[in-house]
Amino acid sequence: MKMTIQQLLRNMQMSRYRLSKKSGVPWSVLADIYSGRIGLDQCGDETLSNLSKALGLSTEELLELETDWDTNTLVGQANGKTYLEAGLPDSVQKAIKEYLQGEKEQVLYLDCLWGELYGAINSNLWAGLITEEQADFLRVKYLGTEGKEEMIHD
């Protein structure tokens, strides 16, 4: 089995935010690559070169990496999981909206918005307002994390 981008970043103890800063590749592009929305083979030469240097890989090694998610799993619609986003508490909906807007505008404080969304998901889980399944789905879809895994922010 080939190594995934997610495994490589975990092994390097590097967040996508840190990789974006180190490589100069916009965070939104990394989010699309990480989630499988776009493949590394669809990236331009400059993006591949910058990522290769930041990760200490050759371009060929970078192109061999895989992603954990396919688009259907990420979106959840093909698996009938759209219900997991129905009726979310206002605080979670607000955090998702602000995070997506920050990602779109490539704001400098995206890590803060990431933390706000992560906190909103967890606090609503602990308060019993969302289920564990919803929390896991939201973390994967929006934050690229799996379950209760600790994320390392540089």
Provide an overview of this structure:
With 154 residues, this protein is mainly α. It has 9 helices and no strands. The protein has helices at 5-11, 16-23, 27-35, 45-55, 59-64, 71-75, 90-105, 110-126, 132-143. Helix 8 (110-126) runs antiparallel to helix 9 (132-143). The longest helix has 17 residues, at 110-126. It is elongated, with a radius of gyration of 16 Å. Residues 69-80 and 147-154 have low confidence and may be disordered.
Order of helices and strands: HHHHHHHHH
- How much is the average pLDDT? 80
- Fraction of residues in H or I helices: 55-70%
Main pleated sheet: none
Uncertain ranges: 69-80, 147-154
What is Rg? 16 Å
Tell me how many strands there are: 0
Percent strand equals under 5%
Principal-axis shape? elongated
> Number of helical runs?
9
Structural class based on helices, strands and sheet pairing: mainly alpha
Distance between the termini: 29 Å
Features:
disordered C terminus; elongated; single chain; 154 residues; mainly alpha
Indicate the topology:
Layout: H1 5-11, H2 16-23, H3 27-35, H4 45-55, H5 59-64, H6 71-75, H7 90-105, H8 110-126, H9 132-143
Helix pairs in contact: 2-3, 7-8, 8-9
Structure summary:
By secondary structure, the protein is mainly α.
